[in-house]
Amino acid sequence: MPKRVCQIIKLKPSAEAEYKAIHAAVWPGVLAALERAHIIDYSIHHYPPLQLLIATFKYTGQDYQGDMRKVAEDPETQRWWQVTDGMQESFVEGAEGSGKDIPWWTELEEVFRCEGKA
Q1: Predicted local confidence at residue 1, as pLDDT
Q2: CA 73 to chain centre
């Protein structure tokens, strides 16, 4: 079964329009890096009252940490993060940006799942 991941981060209020605009046309190289890393069904939702960004995706590979390192090493993704990280505020103490040793986005614990009937 795929690994499901849910993460949150705070969006700076001043960056809301720019963040939505850049995500309306995600760079092809960034999408390709996600695909190479076995990430599917990726979405980011915005909750304006708390300025939360909520990301969910499924990981279908066999080496999550290794594939995440490959994404972090991708030059196009690094350039993307240079743009988007400045629009966000991490909840993780000591976090300095995406792709670093300390996670930028906070990963949430799954407490319930209903798969439904196939």
Answers
A1: 80
A2: 15
What is the helix, strand, coil percentage profile of the chain, to 5?
Answer: 40, 25, 35
In a domain, 112, yes or no: no
**C-alpha span between 82 and 105 (Å, rounded):** 15
CATH of the domain at 75: 3.30.70.100
Q: How many CB atoms lie within 10 A of CB 112?
A: 4
Residue 28 lies in a domain: yes
Categorise residue 80: left if φ over 0, alpha if ψ from -120 to 50, beta otherwise.
Answer: alpha
The pTM of this model reads 0.92
Tell me whether residue 115 is in a domain: no
